[in-house]
Design goal:
By secondary structure, the protein is mainly alpha-helical. The protein has helices at residues 4-17, 56-70, 75-87, 95-108, 112-122, 129-139, 146-155, 170-178, 194-205, 211-223, 229-240, 244-256; strands at 26-27, 30-36, 51-55. The chain contains 12 helices and 3 strands; from the N terminus they run αβββααααααααααα. α2 (56-70) packs antiparallel against α3. It is elongated, with a radius of gyration of 29 Å.
Length: 258
């Protein structure tokens, strides 16, 4: 069994013996990171005695060891898992280490206080129109495969969903409402084009009836004399396996205005 605490202490002790100091982050062509021996997130202070200068590789190893040291320490384990996962973007880590850190991160989850801080920090933030346009162009025409859709759905299904068994507090609802109010709303001062409205309508409709049958139903309805339409709603609903209300909503209103 690995003694991660011992390995961590030996790493810090070895570096401290080299008397690297904490002033220069670039020294003799090497780049260094300032590391808190006792992490600030779990009570460490910005004191010279708690700081050490590590190379990139040493810094990564220190956070790997810290994760395993605090892995089963509740909230501290979550913080160390988060730090280690962030480090993984800079270094190649084993699948086992990454999976372990992810597991701890998701099992414990953010504290309500941390969640509120993040929520408040985003309050009123609005994506720049240029950024929105660039993202829109990038994703235009790109579609997820059916396999990817299934995987994404399963990843957020049941207990895996962060909101499983929970509800937003009234305070959270008010904050969410404020972030989309007035000029903060991405549709403020805008209207959907006729083409966009048709697409949104068709998306909802095809959840009930196929696009092909929708067109056939439209054609059948158009042929029926207006006087006897009310009598034939039921016949059409049986033929196309949709409710009478569905037919009324999508056709009667349209013809009534003509």
């Amino acid at each position: 069994m690995n003694n991660y605490k011992k390995e961590y202490d030996e790493l810090i002790e070895k570096v401290q013996k080299e008397n690297r100091g904490i002033k220069k982050l670039k020294d003799h062509g090497k780049y260094f990171n300032i590391h808190h021996i006792v992490p600030r997130s779990i009570g460490g202070v910005d004191d010279d005695k708690n700081l050490v200068k590590l190379t990139n590789v040493e810094h990564f190893e220190a956070h790997r060891l810290l994760y395993y040291i605090y892995k089963n320490s509740g909230r501290d384990g979550f913080k160390m898992a988060k730090a280690f996962i962030m480090m993984s973007g800079k270094f190649t880590i084993s699948a086992e280490d990454y999976a372990e850190a992810k597991k701890t991160f998701h099992n414990i989850g953010m504290s309500e206080q941390h969640r509120k801080r993040i929520s408040l920090s985003q309050l009123g933030n609005r994506m720049h129109d240029n950024t929105r346009s660039a993202l829109s162009k990038y994703h235009l025409g790109r579609k997820h495969s059916d396999e990817s859709k299934v995987k994404m759905r399963l990843a957020q299904c049941g207990e895996k969903n962060p909101m499983f068994g929970k509800t937003h507090s009234q305070e959270a609802r008010n904050i969410l409402s404020l972030t989309h109010l007035g000029v903060k709303n991405h549709m403020y001062g805008k209207t959907h084009s006729i083409e966009a409205k048709d697409k949104m309508s068709l998306t909802k409709i095809t959840k009930v009836i196929s696009e092909e049958n929708y067109k056939l139903l439209f054609e059948d309805f158009a042929k029926i004399d207006k006087i006897i339409r009310g009598v034939t709603y039921k016949e059409l609903s049986i033929k196309y396996n949709v409710s009478v209300t569905f037919i009324c909503n999508h056709y009667y209103r349209k013809y009534k205005t003509n």
